[in-house]
Structure formats: structure tokens, C-alpha cells
Amino acid sequence: MNEAAIRDLLAADLSVLEEGMELVKIEQYIPKSLGTRNFLDILAKDRTGQWVIIEVKKTNAAARQAAHEVFKYVDAIQRYFGVRKDEIRAIVASVEWTELLVPFSMLRNETSIAVEGVQLLPDIFGKSLGIRPIEPVQVDQGRYLAPWHELNLYNDEASLKRGIASYDHCCKAKGIDNYVLLVLKAADDFNEKASLALNLALQQIAENFGDGAPEEIPIHFRQFDRFDYILYFAPQILSREFCLAVLAQHPETFEEVQACTEDMDTEAELCTLHENLYDFDPCPHRDRFEIGYASKLSQKLLIDEEWTIERVERRGTFARNTLLSDKAIIEELKGATGSSRQSFKRSVSFSNRAHIASAKEGLTEALLTNPAWLAQIKRVLDEASAAWPDGSARINLFGPSSGIFTLYYIATEGSDSHLPQYEVAVFDAAEQLVSTYFGLLVPDGQPIALQPLLDKYYKGRIGDLMFLASAGFFETRDADVMDDLGLAYRTFRVDNPKGAAKYFALKDDRWRPLSLTVPWQPLQPYFDENSSLINEIVSAIGSRMHAGFHDMS
């Protein structure tokens, strides 16, 4: 069958695409002055009355042009028939998809109209068509480090060098070309502090679970391995298809992974595929291994344990991109792009629409568990860009999404290191600070008691709550937990912060004047009024935290 015959067969029964779809015209004429090749394959309408552009292809050679043609036809239909983009849909229908899949996926990613893809399956007699929906692949959006990392510890410099060489060998064997290796050096007293903390934790566990009285249990301090270096590994995010192709080299592993990921959502599946690919032979040399993630690098390693970054080893695109600074790579590894879902940092120019769109995408990822702040910050960006179109903004967000642990750490550490907060500093064209928007956690309603909270979210068990410790204390239901704790994520604004500042609170979708004292501590009344709840949380969690060990029983 040639392309025209396939087109006519499809036009004769558009219900194979969708029930209620009606043919408007085959070979719909479009004036050449509108930049098209004159005739659209099929023009139809769906049961809601929307226009449907259907582009039909047969061979790979013809399919390569389909995505580009759809772009042109959407614009032409808008101008020729006087319709809006939201009144148009497009369907790319092709027999062959080998050459078309990537440009179709890019089209889906770049256009604001609804675009679908279907593979046409003609029967051997050319009398009927079957279809198979096409799922777009993840298209290359430039630099984007995978949020799933490997943390490797080494006893000395010689072992570290061997580790770096082994990573290069392993990545080459697996076809991973683009990755970074962060080299960290231990603080002078790290090993002594770590050994002491571990021994004290073991002693505490022995006292809590041993048979004898605490004073009868002998203290035996053990010597542990010394670690002087960390090699922190992260590749550019890999596609699902790439991971599966590499894992398919080991059929048994491949079948296990497929069975394991069958019911997972897209992100969980991609995480599992990356982790299995990391474990796939050959594996790099290391003296000790841990799972790495953004908050662990930014908080535990660099702040709590005081590791210092010696250098960034770059491979592939990261080595070729000479404009990319080591600082930018480190910030991305720490989750500043939003991939950690806990932090986001970005400077944007309001005159650059791509800056704003990219920032909103990063914020959407960073605030997946916090819809309140996501909506509020997007409003802030729209409002500020309209008021200062030639200005800029600096965004700094920290949203740990740690639920009950947020209150625990605020109460026990007495600092803002675990306090959710954000700031959007707005500058005019002369780079003068004109306004500051900030987000805080504030009291909002009466909290429920700890046990009902455990019953609702953790099967009534404190041990189930402690399992969050294995995931960086990240609680996907953070917004709901905070609501039950009588807390809410709110946004505030300061106009003329360098002069006679005026304060406003965003409430019921309106900015309302706010009188406040400086410094302002909105959570202090909450802690004062709910001291029994705070004490109960500190006691329940604190009794199960032992120098980095977390009792999950």
C-alpha cells in the first residue's frame, strides 16, 4: 500500500483513532502563502467540536518530515480558519516510527497544543487498519544530572585514584559517556568524631536492648576503618530505553528488573533502572559504598561532617562545556535545579521568557509535594515580571518536605537549617532591589495529637515514621501532614526593603497589609502554645536517634 491508500483507508473509518471523530476533508487545501505544501492529509473534528489535524506517513524517509509539517499546519489552520490553539489537536499517524519517534517527542515537548502519535498497522490484505498508541521518549533537554547518585569512600589517595580509573572503565563498558565525579576530602578530625559517635551509638543500643542493667554493660570501644576521600558520582540522566538496552545484556537481571518495575510510576521506574545499571558489572572499586542524594551531599557531608570539595572531574559533555563552572555543577548535585525536590536556586531575567519558563519547570519539580508554594511562587514571578519587565529575580528555595521531622529538628537544633523557607528578591533594570517575596511555615488551625497523626499516616507506629530516615526524611505527604499539624505554607511581600519597607501577606488570593515586628518569628507562638505536642514529638523521635543510627522497630 502506498501512502495515499493508507490515508484513504484511515479516513474511511476514523473511529479506529477515537470514537465520535468525523471526517471534514481529505487533502484539505491550505494557501501556499501560509507556508505549507498546500494540502493537509486529513482534517477532522472530534466529538467535542475541536479541529483535528491528522498527518499520515508510511516510510521512515517521509516520517522525518511529519513533526515539522505539523508545526506549520497548526499555524496555517489558525490563520486560515480563524481558530485558537486550544481548539486544535494533532495526530501523527505513521506505519514506521524508527526515525519519527525523537522528532515527535520533541514536538510534544515544545508545543502547547495536544499532539498524539499512533502507529498504523495495515492488515496483509490492505482492507483494515489497527493502531498502537505511541509513548514519547524523554528528549534531550541539555544538561540534567540524574538525582540518583553513588557515594564511594576511600581509605587513602592511592585507593581514590584506583576508584576514579575504575569509574572511567565501568562507564565506558556501559556506554555512559557524560558524567561527573566530585572528589571530597575528609576534615582533619572526621574519623575520630565518626568513630566516637558510632561507638556511643552502639553503647546506647546495648543499653536499650541488652539484658543487663546499663551500669553492668561493659564499654568496648572499637577501632573502625579510616576514610580520607569520597568520590561522588552522578551521570547525565539516562533514558529508560538506554537503561533497558544495557540491562538486556544480562537476561536474568533484565527479567527481574522488568517484573520489579511493572507497577511503578515513571519516576520510580527510572530511579530503579539507574540503580540497577549502576550495579551492573563491571562495578567500580571502592572501600565502602553508600547511596547518594542531593540533601545528603548538601547537609550531611558538607555541613554536618565538614567534608571539603577538592575538585570536579568532568567527562563527556561536562568536559566540553567550558562555560559551565564547577560551582554550577556542585549546585546541581546539591539539588539547586529542583531535582532533589527539596531545594532550588536560580537567577532569572524577566525579559528572557525562556528563563522564566525554565524556572517554573524547576520549581514544579522542586515543589511537587507543596502545591501551595508552587502556585504562590508562580504568581510571584508573573506579578514581578509584569511590574519590572526589564528587571530580574534571584530565587532561593528550601523545602525539606520532612513532615513531623521539621518540628523535631527545629525544636532540637534551634536553627533554621530544617525550616522550610523561600525568597524571591526582585531587582529593577538598574539592579536595585525593589521588592522581596518570602515564604514561611506559619500557624493555621489547631494541630491534632501525635498518636492520631501516627494512626492516619504511619499505621499507628513510630517505627513506620522512622523509616523516613532512610530517604533523607522526605515525606511525600508533607502538605497533608502539615495541615494536620496546624501549619500552612504562606507567602509574604516586602516593598522597598532597603527603605521605608511595607509588608503584605498573600491571603485569599489578595495582598493584605501586614504589621509585624522585626525580627519576625511566626512559629514561636506555635511552639509556645503546643509545647506538649512538641515535647511528645521530641521524646518519641529523639529516643530512636542514635548518632546517625535510626531505630525503625
Please tell me about this protein's structure.
This is Endonuclease NucS C-terminal domain-containing protein. Residues 3-95 form the Endonuclease NucS C-terminal domain. There is one protein chain. It contains 20 helices and 20 strands. It has helices spanning 3-12, 60-63, 66-81, 101-110, 157-174, 190-209, 240-247, 251-261, 266-279, 294-304, 317-320, 326-333, 353-366, 371-387, 404-413, 450-457, 462-466, 478-484, 524-529, 531-542, and strands at residues 22-29, 39-45, 51-57, 88-94, 114-122, 129-133, 149-154, 179-185, 229-235, 288-292, 308-315, 343-349, 392-398, 421-427, 433-443, 487-495, 502-507, 510-514, 545-546, 549-550. It has three domains: 3-133, Trna Endonuclease, Chain: A, domain 1 (3-Layer(aba) Sandwich), CATH 3.40.1350; 149-186 and 227-320; 335-550, no CATH class. The model has no long low-confidence stretch (mean pLDDT 85). The strands form four sheets. Strands 12-13-14-15-16-17-18 form a seven-stranded antiparallel β-sheet. Strands 1-2-3-4-5-6 form a six-stranded mixed β-sheet, with helices on both faces.
Q: Can you give the helix content as a percent range?
A: 25-40%
Query: Which strand-content bin applies to the residues?
Result: 15-25%
The figure for the number of domains is 3
Q: Determine the mean pLDDT.
A: 85
Uncertain ranges:
none
Termini distance? 66 Å
Number of strands: 20
What oligomeric assembly is this protein in? single chain
Q: What about the largest sheet?
A: 7 strands, antiparallel
What is the approximate shape?
Answer: globular
Derived from helix and strand composition plus strand pairing, the structural class reads: alpha+beta
Number of helices: 20
Can you list the strand order of the major beta sheet? 12-13-14-15-16-17-18
Rg to the nearest angstrom?
Answer: 28 Å
